[in-house]
Amino acid sequence: MRSDAFSILPGLMLCGILALSAQLVSESPLLKGHFPVGAVMLAIILGTGFRHFIPISPRMEPGIRFAFRRILRIGVAGLGFGLTYADIREVGFRGILLDTILIAGTYLFSVALRKWLRLGENLPWLLATGTAICGASAVVAANSVLKAKEEEVAFSVATVTLFGTLSMFLYPVIARFLGIPIPIYGAWAGSSIHEVAQVIGATMNISPQALDFATILKLTRVAFLLPVLVMLEILLLRHGTEAISRTGLSNRKEHFPWFVVGFGAIVVLNSLRLFPSTLLAVLQKGDTWLLAVSMAALGLETHLGRILTVGPSAVKAGFWLWIFVSVWGFVLSLALFGHSFHLPLTG
């Protein structure tokens, strides 16, 4: 037991250092003010760059694998610290309906893309989950069930982050040009932009009302992580013993993503207001760091050459999913939160 602990320590320390660096850089005034991007994405960039330019000692490998396979699950469960039942209730029936239809439509569209572009088994699910739920964190959470190739995961993370960042810059420009009302814009941004940080970046300079509503709607999408991962688990098991043996698992009990249950339990506990606000802030910050640790590990396991082998079809899939979620999200927001543009954007 002690030898196992010592064997993972070097790689784990490397992942931790990269994650801490990513978190410090993401919180720098320059980056937060002009290009808000989360520590999770920065961690995979640092990890990938480290792997590409600096030789990795074999002594590091056990700790890197531990961070990506074990720490990740704890981090995904900890996403529940950012969500309560009150958050879900505040968006109302229309908000939940908007999220539900948009997420379902994104997955159905990913199935169509899979057939059209002849994609592999896992990549469409990774891209759809990252696009529909919460960006990079959702991609790595889905991979805990799917067990996709490292290059597919890295590609999916990079893709959803790229297009989410483009949305962060383009949405305000489009909204001001069209004069989109605040409620519609908040619903559109919160339901279709990938990362929480990107939603904040797209709404914070529009109005406080747009920022608040979009953020709550975005956090509500995180709540769909639980049913989505269970759905992926069921779809995987429907392929029978061949799919299970391909992931190195032999039975449902071992294969079931128990960390998802932890996510749901934390949401319930958080809804009961059992955590003081100061403690909750520490837990949320700590969870971001854990996710960054696992993403640094993913970067360290990723070779840039392998990412390029994913192919042009995968790039097309990421692009068309982005177009779909943007257009579909706007149509739904317009239908559910207003039928005209008579209330211009202010602020």
Fraction of helical residues: over 70%
Radius of gyration: 20 Å
List the helices and strands in order: HHHHHHHHHHHHHHHHHH
**Average pLDDT, all residues:** 81
**Unreliable parts:** 240-255, 340-344
* Distance linking N and C termini: 59 Å
Task: Describe the structure in brief.
The protein has 18 helices and no strands. It is an all-alpha fold and 347 residues long.
Describe this structure in words.
It is built from 18 helices and no strands. The chain has helices at 2-26, 29-34, 39-53, 61-77, 85-90, 92-117, 123-146, 150-178, 182-192, 196-203, 208-223, 225-237, 241-246, 252-255, 258-271, 277-300, 304-308, 312-337. Mean pLDDT is 81; it is low at 240-255 and 340-344. The protein has one domain (2-337). It is mainly alpha-helical and 347 residues long. It is globular.
